[in-house]
């Protein structure tokens, strides 16, 4: 059993020995890991820590303000506005890995500049065990995994990285967060990826898609909060798709495949595959059987259409999963009437939304995110 008290007793002297009197930078993304890492360091090092949140433009609606508010009695967080820089650098890029790498480079060069301005030589980040296990395993380039990939951060960006949570799993991080007195809104907060909405605008990044995604995700989060799901969010993809006769025959329902691809896991490695759509079927056992047939082909995510109309450039996916460790996950069996209610609200957000689907794939063969 993980014991937060003995964990802190163990890491505290190591951190004090390494950092000494030096100042240290903490970058908070809005997720539980980076926030917990920063608060842990603040408890140990006090004013030596400079906690910041970079507004990359890919944060959720009002996120910077909300996080600052939630932490107001705990940590003196400074928000650094960089959204224009990030969005203009990433606009037009379609490839998922290219997006992640570019985001990572920009993220760390921004941190590097802040560190230099403040004479700081250390950076604390909330990397946890699953992050580097998956990155080393080739599942994805997690934006915050550097040292484990052999990147020399001192040479590249001028700071040493400290990762106090590197051996912990999610539930242990949450236990630590509770022990540190973080509010429930943070300790129980669903994970939010460092590159944020960037990886939920699947395929080509445009400002229009990003802004629609931000609004839609807000609706999905509000509608699904307090339902006990481990993670729930939306994605946006271009709506072009075509009927796949072979898969339709196998699955016994019309199966469409989109032009945009998404990540999945096959065996132990990451794979790119098609995103498919199936019609609405009000029976999750039957849906599961159909999905099994479809994912035998080159398909990583299957969406069940909840609402649709004739025209529109974009399709919205709703994702809600249940998981212990985020290495495997089950899609949540949300009542169809509830999904339709959410779908109707989403359709009203923008006239370019052609349809809303619910992702009915588990991990594996899908990943939780799409990129
Ligand atoms: P996947 O999509 O690989 O996601 O099944 C597993 C968990 O990791 C989160 N995730 C990330 N978190 N930086 C992060 O901090 C990232 O680049 C990143 N990519 C995925 C994802 O939200 C899920 O909880």
Order of helices and strands: HEHEHEHHEHHEHHHEEHEEHEEEHE
**Low confidence ranges:** none
Q: Give the total of beta strands.
A: 13
Number of helices: 13
Q: Characterize the main sheet.
A: 8 strands, mixed
Estimate the helix proportion, in percent.
25-40%
Give a list of the ligands: xanthosine-5'-monophosphate
On the 0-100 scale, what is the average pLDDT?
94
Could you tell me the radius of gyration in angstroms? 21 Å
Strand content: 15-25%
How widely separated are the two ends? 33 Å
Sheet/helix structural class: alpha/beta
Global shape: globular
Features of the shown structure:
371 residues; alpha/beta; eight-stranded mixed sheet; 13 helices; 22% strand; binds xanthosine-5'-monophosphate
Structural write-up:
The chain has 371 residues and is α/β, with parallel strands linked by helices. The protein has 13 helices and 13 strands. It has helices at residues 4-19, 32-45, 63-70, 83-90, 96-117, 129-136, 153-157, 170-179, 184-187, 207-224, 245-251, 284-294, 336-347, and strands spanning 24-27, 49-55, 78-81, 122-124, 160-162, 231-238, 241-243, 256-266, 269-278, 299-308, 314-322, 330-331, 353-359. The strands form 2 sheets. Strands 6, 7, 8, 9, 10, 11, 12 and 13 form an 8-stranded mixed β-sheet that branches. The chain has a 5-stranded parallel β-sheet with strand order 3-2-1-4-5, sandwiched between helices. The longest helix is centred in the first third of the chain and has 22 residues, at 96-117. The protein is globular, with a radius of gyration of 21 Å. The structure holds xanthosine-5'-monophosphate. Xanthosine-5'-monophosphate is lined by residues 134, 139-140, 142-144, 191, 193-195, 231, 326, 363, 367-369.
């Amino acid at each position: 059993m993980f014991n937060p008290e003995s964990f802190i007793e163990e890491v505290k002297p190591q951190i004090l020995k390494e950092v000494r009197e030096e100042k240290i930078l903490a970058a908070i993304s809005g997720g539980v890991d980076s926030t917990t890492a920063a608060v842990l360091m603040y408890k140990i090092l006090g004013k030596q820590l400079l906690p910041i949140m970079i507004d990359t433009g890919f944060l959720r609606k009002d996120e910077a303000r909300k996080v600052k508010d939630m932490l107001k009695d705990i940590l003196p967080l400074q928000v650094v506005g960089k959204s224009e820089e990030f969005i203009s650098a990433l606009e037009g890029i379609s490839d998922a890995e290219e997006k992640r790498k570019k985001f990572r480079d920009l993220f760390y060069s921004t941190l590097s500049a802040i560190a230099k301005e403040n004479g700081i030589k250390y950076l604390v980040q909330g990397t946890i065990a699953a992050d580097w296990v998956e990155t080393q395993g080739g599942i994805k380039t997690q934006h915050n995994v550097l040292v484990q990939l052999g990147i020399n951060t001192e040479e590249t960006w001028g700071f040493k990285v400290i990762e106090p949570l590197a051996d912990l799993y999610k539930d242990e991080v949450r236990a630590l967060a509770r022990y540190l007195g973080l509010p429930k809104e943070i300790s129980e907060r669903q994970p939010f990826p460092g590159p944020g909405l960037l990886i939920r605008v699947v395929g080509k990044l445009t400002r229009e898609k990003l802004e629609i995604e931000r609004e839609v995700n807000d609706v999905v989060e509000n509608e699904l909060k307090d339902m006990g799901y481990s993670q729930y969010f939306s994605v946006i993809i271009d709506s072009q798709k075509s009927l796949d006769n072979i898969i339709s025959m196998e699955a016994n329902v019309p199966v469409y495949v989109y032009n945009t691809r998404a990540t999945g896991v096959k065996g132990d490695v990451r794979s790119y595959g098609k995103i498919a759509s199936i019609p609405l079927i009000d029976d999750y056992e039957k849906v599961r059987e159909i999905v099994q047939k479809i994912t035998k082909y080159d398909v990583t995510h299957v969406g069940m259409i909840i609402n649709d109309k004739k025209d529109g450039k974009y399709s919205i996916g709703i994702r809600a999963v249940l998981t212990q460790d985020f290495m495997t996950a089950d899609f949540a069996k949300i009542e169809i009437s509830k999904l339709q209610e959410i779908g109707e609200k989403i359709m009203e957000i923008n006239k370019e939304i052609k349809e809303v689907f619910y992702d009915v794939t588990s991990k594996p063969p899908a990943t939780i995110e799409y990129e």
